[in-house]
Amino acid sequence: MKRTMFVASLLAIGVTAAIAQSNVVEQRQALMKEMGAQTRPVGAMMRGQEPFDLAKVQAGLKVFAENPKKFVTLFPENTKDAPKTEALPTIWENKAKFESLGNKMSQDAQTAMAGIKDEASFKTEMPKVLQNCGACHNEFRKKTS
């Protein structure tokens, strides 16, 4: 009886850990997808494919300011080998740089929120925010074909 309870407890702990790991990965992926969704209209405005809309820009910048502070905390060591993730091991090998890039994006987005008032300031400031995406993806995300 004790052995059965012990095995059941171990299984429960293992299932709980797997669910927690999956949940953290899903949380960070959701934050990244939200950022990607904000990048599309902003990018279209940058390319002149969509008219400048300060409200959309500010909404995007709010996401770019908030999400990086959240997602850098969602890479615990036990998710290093999680399936269905594009995170590279370099995140855990160089956690300080990863967190620094997330914090820089957040800070750059906050600066842009205060500085973007019209299309001219948007075209000057927005690339500074968006370059953070590429900097992080180049080093910490698997390349997709």
From TrEMBL:
Q: Could you tell me the keywords of this UniProt record?
A: Electron transport, Heme, Iron, Metal-binding, Signal, Transport
**Residues in the signal sequence:** 1-20
Which protein are we looking at?
A: Cytochrome c
InterPro entries listed in its UniProt record: Cyt_c/b562, Cyt_c_II, Cyt_c_prime
